[in-house]
Amino acid sequence: MFINKFLNMRLPIWGINIDLLSIDQIIEAIETNLNTRRLPMQVTGINPEIIINSITDRSLNNAINESSIVNIDGISVVVALRMLGYGGVKRVACPDIFDILLDKANKKGYRVFFLGARKEIVTAMIANLKNEYPDLQIAGFHDGYFSKENEPKIAKKIRSSKADMVFLGMSSPKKELFIRNYLEILNVPLCLGVGGVFDIKAGLYKRAPKWMQEMGLEWLYRLIQEPRRMIKRQVNILKFINLFFKTYHMNRKVIPYAYDGLLISKRAS
Fold it and tell me: Is the residue at 93 inside a domain?
């Protein structure tokens, strides 16, 4: 199993372990594994929907907690943790990790495999990426519409591609469970779920402008573009708000402390 040297920066809350890492630290950990030990590595981004579902879905909960790195992908989680006293917490969006890793793959020759979305979407994305990253080595791709019975076959296809990185453009919990169940078979130094990023890279939707991302309004931009899909998620947002208030009222005392220079706060028991 991949050894996370940043384990002392983990925050256990809501039944999962969150890594309080900057995007630079996450990229460093990924590249270190790519260039040295090359152990199977799962990076999982969490948002309110995933947190709520992980409470009742034991398989999803295990997939999250067995990941090498668990980053905060949702701004609502950041806001909640800051209100609970964890002042140094920041969002590390999976689309941002994806962009940085594609650039590194283009420059350093890492082989990438794309799994997810409809076939026409993933092929359109690849065509666009080849224009943006002319030296990108694509190990292979497969759409995200496959049955559970076909999972072993797809896992073997990815393994035989000798990919360095696998990006999964699928919804939760399918992407997390696929990685967890087949991580050893895949034998890939990085598996990262990126959700709906394939649609964006294919040109189907646009990502929010930088100023909206910085203000924590990316969810609003997505809601405008994908109202049906995003409205369904609002139920889990409400459940997460309820979870936050339960956590807040359990203990209001806050003790300041630091993790390797990252100033946060620890709630007293």
Answer: yes
Higher pLDDT, 76 or 208: 76
Half-sphere exposure of 19 (CA within 13 A, CB side): 25
Residues in the chain: 269
Give, as one character, the DSSP assignment of residue 87: T
pLDDT at 1 over 60: no
The reply to whether 7 falls in a domain is no
Amino acid at 210: K
What is d(CA 43, CA 176) in angstroms, rounded to the nearest whole number?
9
Q: Is residue 37 part of a domain?
A: yes
> Residue 36: inside a domain, yes or no?
yes
Distance CA 212, CA 210 (A): 5
- Work out the pLDDT band at 187, boundaries 50, 70, 90: very high
- Give the Å distances, CA to CA, from 22 to 62, 154, 178, 202, 233: 23, 32, 26, 28, 26
